[in-house]
Amino acid sequence: MSGNPETATRPAKINIPDSVSTQFHHEAGAEKFGLTQQAFAGVLQEVVSKYLPATASPSEILDFLTHLRLEELALARGCALGSEVAWEVFLTRYREKLFSAAYSIVPGDANARELADSLYADLYGTHTAQGQRISKLNSFTGRGSLEGWLRAVLAQEYVNRFRRQQRLVSMEEQVEGGAQFEAEAPDPTQAIDARLREATDQALMSLAAEDKFILASYYLDGRTLAEVARLLGVHESTISRKLEKITAWTRKAILSGLMKRGMSRKEAEQTMEVEVTELSLDVRRRLMQEKGEQTVP
Amino acid sequence: MARSVTTAHLPNHFMAGLPKIALARLKVKPGAPKSSGGPEGQAGFPGARHPDANLLAAFVEKTLTERERTRVLHHLAQCAECREVAAFALPAEAAAAETTGVAAGWRWSPWLVLRWGAMAAVLGALTVVVVLHPGMWKGPQEISKKMPPQPPAGNIMIAPQTASPSPLAPPPPQTARAKAQVEAGESAGEMAAMKKAPGQREDLSLNDHVARAQAKQQVTLMASSRAPATVRAENIPTANAEREESKEGNVLTLRPLSAPPLPPGSAVVTAAASDEVAKASGESHGGPAAFGSVGGRAAGVGSAEDTAAKAAPPVPARATLRMAGPAPMGAARAFRTDMESEARPPAALWSVASDGQVRRSTDGGKTFEQIPVAHAIKFRAIAALGNDVWTGGAGGALFHSVDGGASWIRVAFNFGGNSETITGIQLRDPQHLTVTTASGSQWASEDGGQHWQKQP
Q1: Are residues A127 and A216 in the same domain?
Q2: B261-292: per-residue pLDDT in tens?
Q3: Average of per-residue pLDDT across B144-163
Q4: Does B100 score more than 50 pLDDT?
Q5: Which of these ranges, A4-18, A137-151, A180-194, B239-253, has the smallest mean pLDDT?
Q6: Which of A145, A152, A219 is opposite residue B23, by nearest beta carbon?
Q7: Prediction pTM value
Q8: Residue A77, domain member (yes or no)
Q9: Residue pairs between chains A and B whose CB atoms are closer than 8 Å
Q10: Is there a single domain that holds both residue A226 and residue A130?
């Protein structure tokens, strides 16, 4: 399944010159992890084909490859192949980090260990298909660090578990309460003046992706300025300034949108401050509203 | 997620500014697709509607292209779960410091911490003296006469505690070790020692304590948190000394004052001298030539032999004390460098040959050995701080070693799609470095190469 129109037109592989793949094979030290030059070249081709369009120039391909975490890529793929050397290195480097990451996601020794252990099983590949071990490490592409990837995978696993658990709890509660298959709560903005809704949507759509992310992280997720700053790799004061600017701009844009839709300034200001009931910032409830289940006007 | 969200942390002016309708609409995903072929699919990701762990990890580590980053941000703005995953994918803050390549143990101490720790220890020692020897407290006037004036902030370094220090003797060799102890946060140990046995303290007169304080003042170092640590780079002392001279305009050198000037054509390449060296490239001696760039400007052309480094043997401590003019920052650093060099064997010197090979000398520049870094890459710049070594070259290749060149890792370095040759590296400390490319662009990192920002 591919959601990206670009991938539909992309050839299966992008050819990488042998000299380049040889160089990277050497740089990555892939041999010691049980990856031959040919095998590693195949890995590189797979990664390049996944992220670059078919029209990528040789310099773009080279630049892309030089930015990969080649050694970690070789390590991960070596582990996926079952190389003992690779696993030894992997466990030495990442065993404690994996547990620390799990502990930071889900507090409690037992829960953290359980989460980390479940990931180990996926990394090692307890399932096989056509005689080949299916290891999650095969999906590591070296775009970021292996450690970062492990944290993201752990987090994804936890979010998925949390959602599954919440669904079960929610259904049980609903059944006990005599309200089976309760309908989703309606969009609280449905009752609002359509002009206000439209002006607001237009203003939000005009925001840059980063600005929307900042608003969502800060207001919807309840993250602190410092946390948002860390996510974007900037200073906290930068986020503070940006939030002020975005907030002021959004307000102004909504006002302007309302006035364009026939309201006077005073009317627009009053309309904009309408109370939206049931505005919930509850993270648990939000996580239960998975993609596609929200009511969209 | 066991996190409960409140709005208590939100500053009033933010909350007052953003209308609640905007918050409500922010939660709604306009045009959320039912299938992957919808609008989100068009802004989707290879093979999925959500960015996978690779992209999320690359996002938090800022290794995505601008286009990819925008795409991920667009998705994150609408997907609370992916925002949660991205937040969890962030390294713990302590771990982030570890991944910058700082070796375990102290190799570098923040001058700010040293400065305030030293001041606190001195003040604490004096307080103990005053409290426990009230009879000797003759009055603030007399004490102020005996006590040297408090040095400006940042200039105190604690000398080791000795039984009967000579008031005006130069700091003993223990100073380097005591300094290391202070760096390790053991300055409190001095206070503790003073508090230990009253009997012992009574053996030391007020004059002894004052003398100790004066001895500490003798080891005054001008320190600045902004001081480029390259001066401490015993690896390439001459380059830094030359650069400091041109910068500060003082008679500061890490070479002996009596050292002969370098012969023409063999000058160490520096920011100021790079043009001259470029012109003198015709005087190349052939064979491998050494040119190392520790400045911000390109130093890709060099005609100097390794004799450039050889011509600058370590400087005796006393030579640097005979400086003219006010003590610049570099002077103090030179002093510290020399003090350390007295206790240790010569640190490694690094250079890059004209054939692009990285070379290292561990005998003060007498001989150089080739250090393998990466196959088929020509290096053009190198900078080192102890065992922390950075080298860059053709195609934007940037490599980092934390073990003095025994092993290297390639550092992802986004030039916005261009693979420019790295021609200069300036290493201030293990976390702060600046890289210069062939076009003159400068990129700075404050976290040991994890993230980079283009400098204006």
Answers
A1: no
A2: 444 444 333 333 444 444 444 444 444 343 33
A3: 45
A4: no
A5: B239-253
A6: A219
A7: 0.50
A8: yes
A9: 283
A10: no
Q: Binning pLDDT at 50, 70 and 90, where does residue B439 land?
A: confident
Q: Cβ B84–A159 below 8 Å, yes or no?
A: yes
Q: Do B48 and A3 touch (CB under 8 A)?
A: yes
Domain ranges of chain B: 12-91, 111-218, 230-454
* Interface predicted TM-score of the whole assembly (ipTM), two decimals: 0.83
Is pLDDT of B307 > 60? no
Residue B185 above 90 pLDDT?
Answer: no
Across the interface, whether the CB atoms of B18 and A251 are under 8 A apart is answered yes
Domain C-terminal end among A117, A147, A177: A147
CATH code at position A207: 1.10.10.10
The answer to the question of residue A81 being in a domain is: yes
pLDDT of residue B215: 52
- Chain A residues with CB under 8 Å of B356 CB are none
**A123 and A209 belong to one structural domain:** no
- A69 inside domain: yes
Nearest Cβ partner for A296 among B29, B89, B395: B29
B408 vs B183, more confident: B408
Nearest to B273 by CA among B292, B288, B250: B292
| Side-chain half-sphere CA neighbours of B225 within 13 A | 9
Residues A15 and A142 in one domain: yes
pLDDT at B428: 85
- Chain A residues touching B21 at Cβ < 8 A: 189, 192, 196-197, 200, 254, 272, 274, 276
Note whether B83 contacts A: Cβ–Cβ < 8 A: yes
At residue A274, does pLDDT exceed 90? no
Residue A279 lies in a domain: yes
Domain containing A49 equals: 11-147
Q: Which two tokens stand for residue B39?
A: 């609008």
Q: Residue A184's pLDDT band (boundaries 50, 70, 90)?
A: low
Q: Provide the domain count of chain A.
A: 2
Cβ distance of B419 and A62 shorter than 8 Å: yes
Q: Which of A129, A147, A165 marks a domain boundary?
A: A147
* Chain A contact probe: residue of B4, B7, B13, B28 with most A CBs at under 10 A: B28
Residues A216 and A121 in one domain: no
| Nearest CA distance, A247 vs chain B (angstrom) | 5
